[in-house]
Hints:
This protein has one helix spanning 52-80. It is built from one helix and no strands.
Amino acid sequence: MHPFWVAQSTGGADTTLEWDKTAGPWSLIVANADGTPGLDVRADIGLRFGFLTPLGGGLLALGALLLAAPLMSTTRRRHSQ
C-alpha cells in the first residue's frame, strides 16, 4: 500500500512537482499550507510513454513496406516481360 501523500512540493510562484507513476487512480490537491482561501493555479500535465517511440517506428516501417510492395511487384513484372 502506498503512503497517503505520494509526492509533495512547496514553493512560490513557479513550483514543479514530479513523481513516478504507479498503478491506481490519482488526485491532485493544491492548497495553501495554512488552509487559507485565495489560491490561483495554472497546471500543466505531461505524460511519458516509453513504448510509443518503438511502436511508432514499427508502424512507420510497416506502412513503408505496404506501400513499397505493389511498386516492387510492378517493377518485377516489367523486367520479366
